[in-house]
Fold this sequence. Notes:
It is elongated and about 60 Å long. Helices cover 47% and strands 0% of the residues. By secondary structure, it is mainly α.
Amino acid sequence: xxxxxxxxxxxxxxxxxxxxxxxxxxxxxxxxxxxxxxxxxxxxxxxxxxxxxxxxxxxxxxxxxxxxxxxxxxxxxxxxxxxxxxxxxxxxxxxxxxxxxxxxxxxxxxxxxxxxxxxxxxxxxxxxxxxxxxxxxxxxxxxxxxxxxxxxxxxx
Length: 156
């Protein structure tokens, strides 16, 4: 007998999904996100002394020659501290979606009666993703969208 899953609360949905429909929970900068958590776990498993081992093993395993660069990237990924745009942490300067959603009293653009609007106030490369995500949010709802977002790559 399987235990039914508890649907995410509204606050959890708002924490993990930006008003524009980007899945914050999968972002490399998101505090508590999978990328940050896995990077921290790997960093901790390797420990601070692995750099010395990598240097000694590099002649036998050439891939380890790049360990210093890898370690710097791993440290960067482990620092994810963004709490999402609803908390003022949006990395996209000039994005007006959060303010627009608040003005229309909706959690997500796809819930807005004016969606899709003519001016989503997003950088051009994100407009098509915004439209697709908004359509899914509108048709299936935020909980189903979150389930879908968790099952696909964050960086297509």
